[in-house]
Amino acid sequence: MDKKICVVSMSVGKPASMTAAWINNELIMAERTSYPERRRDMELQLLRELREKEEKGFIVLVEEENSFITGRVGQRVRLRDPFMNGRPVLIEAMQIYKELERQKAIKLPRKESGKYILHQSIFDSEHDKKGDEFFNINWSEITTEHVLTLLCCFATEYNNVASADYIREGANKFLI
After folding, report:
1. Which tens digit of pLDDT belongs to each residue from 146-169?
2. What pTM, to 2 d.p., does this model score?
3. For the chain, how far is it from start to end, CA to CA, in angstroms?
4. 174 has pLDDT over 80
5. What is the dihedral of CA 101, 24, 34, 39, to 10 degrees?
C-alpha cells in the first residue's frame, strides 16, 4: 500500500520534520523543515502543518517524550518503545533501513543527503548465540537527520489500526 509520510523529530537535536512517500515499495524522502527550538515559537506552525498533512492523508509520526504535539495531532513514537513484535522501534527501523539500502529502495533527500546515511560507526550490529541480531548504538553520534531517516523507514511498516484509511484498506481486502 502506498503511503504519504510526515515524521517529526523533537528529542534529538533541533526540531525538524521530513515528508516522504512509500511508492511501489520504495521510500522517497523528500523535504525537510526545521523549526525553532523554543516551544512557543514552534507550536503553532508545527501544529498547523501537521494538521494539514493529516487532512491530506499523511501518516504523521512524532518522536517526542511527552504529548506536547501528539496530544493534539499525529501519533507519538519513541525509538525505545516496543513495536508489535516486542522489539524496540529503533531496532525495527534499523532493520528496515538496512533492507531498503541493500535493495536500493531508499532515496535520501537531495539536499545534504550524506547527513541521512546511517553509518556503521553509529549502529554496529552483532549476532548473539541464538543468531539474533542486536545493535551497539553510539547515541552521541545520532543526529536529527538520523532520527528522521529511522522514522521514515519505520513509517513504511506502521499502520494506525484506528485510522479510517487502515480500516477501509482492510475492508477492501476482505471484500475482494
Report:
1. 999 999 999 999 885 444 444 445
2. 0.85
3. 15
4. no
5. -110
